[in-house]
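Chapter review: from sequence to fold.
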Amino acid sequence: MIVLSIILWPLCGCLYAQQKYYITADRVFDGETIHQGWAVVVENDKITAVGPKDKIKNPPGAIKINKPNSTLIPGLIEGHSHLFLCPYNITDWDTQVLKESDAYRTARATVHAKNTLLAGFTTARDLGTEGAGYSDVGLKRAISEGIIPGPRLLVAGRAIVATGSYGPKGYDNDMNIMLGAEPADGPDLIRVVRDQIGKGADVVKVYADYRWGLQNESRPTFSLEELTTVVETAKSSGRPTVAHAGTKEGMRRAILAGVETIEHGDDLDLEIGKLMKDHNVVYIPTLAAVEKIAEYRGWVKGKTPDPERVTLKKKSFQAALQSGVILGMGGDVGVFAHGENVLEMELMVEYGMNPLDVLKAATSVNSKAFHIDKLVGFIRGGLKADLVIVTGDPSVTISDLRKVQWVMKDGIVYRNEM
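The token string follows.
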């Protein structure tokens, strides 16, 4: 049997603006519920009708899309990515930050963006360029203007760290070393937040803790007052603040300051989980990055004992489940290969989460957490036509998300293996 695989992307989305589609599948996951025997109509870049096939008419001239044994889902939303990073087993982090030019890293990021989209992730939060300045703002524009294929982006620009806490480190102090994020402290945080917003950041990201302790252990960086300053300054512009935080105290300060998502959360326990739930803070666990870094250091999953960080991650994820924290989906992709984003979802299931809830995390939950639920994250009339068809049923077997057959974003088909 010959399988025809077609991957298309336009030079300008407007060339495809008048297409109509009538889409059916064995199952339709609308972002919250699985439905049998449904149809979806797309006109231009919007979903115009959704419901049982006997109630949804096929518009004249519409292109019919159907594949046996398939599930239609909203475009997936990656909650934590770094499009300007590549896996550390290929090139280590210091080398990427210090030796690779922004132009080189941007060229590579265009490939990462394409791979992300073709894997069914039509939206992504990119949480820091790690030394590439505001190149993410330019990448976002190139994608939105149809110059290159990629997911709809929410970008954080440089991210913010406390002075002296971040890297690269270990170089002669007489040298001016490029840092992976922007340092700021005290009252200067107001200026830095405003400056990052002015240069195009959609999200303000802070590092509430980092590996700057006496023994290189993670310790809190910013005070509660400093974090509150960041949150209030960003909020006045309508932007959320998110926090890299792994220690209990770092998370506690970030939560009380009003951040909207906690990234990583390695030391999360029932106490912190309750605090997150009480403050409606979403947890983005980044399980895949921890496992992949362990593998780069020699761990063989299933054959050698779990490293301490993997064991801790499993424990923190269980605590999040038990305490009822809102769980979003984000893998810290860039630490591992772009386009392999589903790995995070597979690990969420492996660590104890129901596959249907994981699907929700990567669609409706992320869309609400990122304030884009009026745009994407659901299959509903009036929303953007971001749609993906996979073979099988990912609400039962999450790895079926790897069997991508068809990807549409903004009403434009970028992948078609029907």
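Two observations follow directly from the output. Residues 14 and 193 are 35 Å apart (CA to CA). The chain has two domains: 6-73+377-416, 76-369.
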